[in-house]
Design goal:
Chain A: It is a multi-pass membrane protein. Chain A: One of its GO terms (cellular component) is plasma membrane. Chain A: One of its GO terms (molecular function) is branched-chain amino acid transmembrane transporter activity. Chain A: Keywords: Cell membrane, Membrane, Transmembrane, Transmembrane helix. The complex is a heterodimer. By secondary structure, chain A is an all-alpha fold. Chain A has two domains: 1-31; 37-273, no CATH class. Chain A is built from 17 helices and four strands. Chain A has helices at 2-31, 34-59, 67-87, 93-97, 105-108, 113-136, 143-162, 164-167, 187-213, 215-225, 227-232, 237-263, 273-286, 292-311, 316-330, 334-352, 358-361, and strands at 173-174, 178-179, 182-183, 265-266. In chain A, strand 2 (178-179) and strand 3 form a beta hairpin. In chain B, helix 5 (176-186) packs across helix 6 (199-215). Chain B is an alpha/beta fold. In chain B, strand 15 and strand 16 (397-402) form a beta hairpin. Helix content of chain B is 42%, strand content 18%. Chain B has helices at 2-33, 69-88, 108-120, 133-145, 176-186, 199-215, 233-242, 254-265, 282-288, 290-293, 309-322, 330-349, 354-361; strands at 51-52, 55-62, 96-103, 127-129, 150-152, 165-167, 190-196, 218-225, 246-250, 274-277, 297-300, 365-368, 371-375, 382-383, 387-391, 397-402. The chains are: A mainly alpha, B alpha/beta. At the A-B interface, helix 2, helix 4, helix 7, strand 4 and helix 14 of A face helix 1, strand 3, helix 3, helix 4 and helix 6 of B.
Chain lengths: 367, 426
Amino acid sequence: MKVLQRASASRYGLATAYLLAAALLAAAPLFTSDFRLNLLAKFLAFAIAAVGLDLLWGYTGILSLGHGVFFGLGGYAMAMHLKLQASGGKLPDFMEWSGLSKLPWFWTLFQSFGMSVILGIAIPSLVALFLGYFTFRNRIRGVYFTILTQALVVISVTLITGQQAFTGGTNGITGYGELFGYSLAAPEMKIALYYVTAAVLVVVLLLSRFLVKSRFGKVLRAVRDGENRVRFLGYNPAKFQMAVFVLSAAFSGIAGMLFVLHVGIISPSMMGIVPSIEMVLWVAIGGRGTLIGAALGALLMNGAKSVFSETYPEIWLFFMGALFIVTTVFLPRGIVGLVADGWHRLRLLGRRRKGVPEHERSRYSAV
Amino acid sequence: MREIKSKGKRHVIVTGLLAAVSLALVLGGCAQNSPAASPSASPASGASSSESGSEIKVGILHSLSGTMAISEVSVKDAEMMAIEEINAKGGVLGKKLVPVTEDGASDWPTFAEKARKLLSEDKVATVFGGWTSSSRKAMLPVFEELNGLLWYPVQYEGLESSPNIFYTGATTNQQIVPAVDWLLENRGKKVYLLGSDYVFPRTANKIIKAQLEAKGGELAGEEYTPLGHTDYTTIISKIMAAKPDIVFNTLNGDSNVAFFKQLKDAGISSADLTTLSVSVAEEEIRGIGADVLAGHLAAWNYYQTTDTPENKAFVEAYKGKYGADRVTADPIEAGYAAVYLWAAAVEKAGSTDVDKVKEAAKELEWAAPEGKVKIDGETQHLYKTVRIAEVQADGQFKELWNSGEPVKPDPYLKSYTWAAGLSSGS
């Protein structure tokens, strides 16, 4: 009886924390400048990608170092639409430089906003499905899969950089400022886009939470902890792995689209090896297998990056490096792990005198 | 049990580290706000807020980390030196210039983010920054949106003229076009085009091809390699098979090092095959090696050896401040000039207001280290003297030819009949 009460008490605590976070998100435009709000919106977009990655890595045990590609593909879809709008019927400027005289056929698909959004989700999903189909079905996993995702990054970056006439090359796609004829620079538009991003993040978090709690989520964790056992029990792990890989790619695509709306540029450097690894670091630092930790990790790491680079422009990379090392060495379970440990220890201190069974105490020490 | 115990110890370390990091954050935040009255968070505050009391804030936005840092840090150094010199002489409008430095990190979206930060958070009066065309293209929408002012110090491919950017490097008709003319007259008609695959070489070569066709030159071949490409053995054999009189080289960065070293390894000297480069300056010669480059050509508006009294003083000051082993080069000089030109325009306008400064900057003249420069009011580019030079064994350039007087900038090549159609729609 007592245990039950305690559990519900901590659940109330958690609910309050979530409500508080939601309230903070909702009120942010009131107390931040335009610039900071824009940054925060960008971080929220990153958080969406991080949650997707956490589903894949934290819950299913598949480490992808290629999510920058899915992020970039979503970003390019949105950027292509915006560029077409900005060019107003004429050929986008970089095609002109590169000697094209006609809009390539696949660009015409991005004339419509709806179609661009659909493609911004569908293209990353299809690429993930393609890669997942040939790897998971052939039981390629662990580090071999991770290496393949890195190969995907190299291929995509080389392809996009090389095809300057169609993709804008190293420059990427930039030089647009309007969505539906409204300026992206207008403060109202920025606030609206911020709320859209925050709402998408909340939906993504709730959906992920629902999935994780469901039977589907249980199988995912089972695949992580014992793929062969799952297979012997009659499930096909490949199907679950593919499903979660596609879902997380879709989340990254959505994040990429929102990123472009906030930042106004997408370039191959955003889908490179470094950003792809950074995404994994957000999850690791926030605490993998916790969803909210992934989102927090993305917010904190990017916040720290901005603060460090603004304050110490010449040596900020050393601070970031130190931060990575400290968290990986001392916080193997990330920030959320630290908070959970702290909370647990506090309760232990309170209860030790009353004598709490041993199994209760060690509950949190399992990773 | 054991695990919990050891964790207790670890917990102390973690808390300590976290405390240290957060302290650093807080201190950083304070340090950031202390030099001037902290900028108001309201986006509606006026343009004059960059002048707070006795100070004027100016932004410096170059890559201080990443692949471009090696080039851009030198330009940042020259800009900082100009700011110090101006401050030593009493500042601008009697106020001290306070530089706010940001790191573009060789990443184009970061350039856009930091430009936005400098303009809307720090409310700087102007920004000096950028090197690659990609970084400029990324910053351009931000400067136009917030009506900021950017001084861009590097030669580029032209076909651009933003009302919010001053271009103090050369455009195509001040570097590439006269260089090709000179080559056709002095070195032969058969030209091989070699470049990195991005907007500058592509555009430059498009122009050169039109020019060759109009002036009776011959295209011996055209080759692009990805940025950062380092294997040129196949391309070198291709070039040798084509037997060109000259290779017009628009390679960038590390590729130049690889190309020239492999050229030398293949036993091909500058007498066998001469190249003219538009992205190889004194700084790059240091990296590639003077022995490898001796005899090859370059086209710029400024060399460390350019013979003007202003340049003597500039080189001396730069070496005095940053070390005798440092060299000056075209973009470094253009960055230095940008600061002085902006300061002169502000003095003339009596204000740092962007629109007033732009108005005052029209037709402004200044005796730069490269010789006399003048701001063209229409395009916001500079009149610059074109110089073609040959690399000497000591790593310095010997000037072979110059245009005699500053050439009027023409970023869209409107005054060249053969170039009609190149810039259509832009």
